[in-house]
Give the backbone structure.
Amino acid sequence: MGCVTGKRQYDTQSQAEEALIETRGRFVFREGSGPIGVYQCDDCGYWHFTSKGPMSDLLKKTDTKKQISDQQEAQFWERKFRSR
């Protein structure tokens, strides 16, 4: 059953954070937009992304930034090769 918010649900904080990093790597967001953290929902008890508030400390970590950057570069090259 889905959440009344309509957002995707994650069972744990760590699953939501992994998905957040993957999402930030898969898509390019403008400065100050897109998901920047996770929170536990008062309505359903599951974890969701949020685009409000301060950016998650996880996304500020050097190794996380590198992981996101590497994934974005891989996505770039994959799209480039598919368009041939």
